């Protein structure tokens, strides 16, 4: 449900709507693939809370007469206008990579980006009827690749590996994104949006699980500086890779979509976006447990967890994901600027 607003806004505002939209990612954009065969017992985030946020994306889509992207694993769905291949827990690096580093027990991956691209390729007979028809459709479609990388870095952090070791993953993670983009271009994709990572150190999950000594938090933000640096380093490397891909594929339009800047602004300038000015705090969690309303034993969806009365005045939904209100601001920034390079709707697309 969280990602649907992004997709709907893209569909709404894209001048000359794309023929189809294909989305790849992790739990930030999973609309049901992990639960296609029923909700797993361990997945608290898929269980209803005592005050589930309103389905703003669903009502917006209904009013506009737009279809939501079906999860690719949905039964009896049609995919002529696109599909969502995102799945909760997705990584960029595969299990042999983690096994070689002794991290196999710390990583839970339900499907890498490259696994999702394989699902995309397997689904092609349900999308189009011939190779030429597929290439023509994909050339007129919008591909959203990510955000990816959060689970790769997060799993390594939760394995208690030192931060310098986590930084060594950045080249492999960014290379995997680049190879994924090249595979989609080879399929005929001509317009791709590649999001970076949000500021990891601002999220209640990480603030709760990785306390730092005084002086290691942002003076105004209260975010963990070294974890935000990790996200910044990833995003800088990703932007360099995108620049290389643009040079190698001049006929392809590649958009870098910024999660980092808007999320920082939600913290520093909360009232400007209609959010409460407060310490980074989850809307849905365990009230009274911890400064950030996050506790691993009472996550959103677990017994004892409750949602705040008005999710629209919070930027963090459950300490891990954002609220619908946050995604609305980000989506508009991706479409029109300033949170995309170039904006999805630049003058060429508006003309």
From TrEMBL:
Source species, domain of life: Eukaryota
One GO molecular-function entry: hydrolase activity, acting on ester bonds
Keywords on record: Glycoprotein, Hydrolase, Signal
Keyword Hydrolase: yes
Sequence intervals crossing the membrane: none
A Pfam short name: Lipase_GDSL
Keyword Cell membrane annotated: no
Endpoints of the signal sequence: 1-20
Protein family (similarity comment): Belongs to the 'GDSL' lipolytic enzyme family.
Protein name as it appears in the record: GDSL esterase/lipase
Lineage, uppermost ranks: Eukaryota, Viridiplantae, Streptophyta, Embryophyta, Tracheophyta
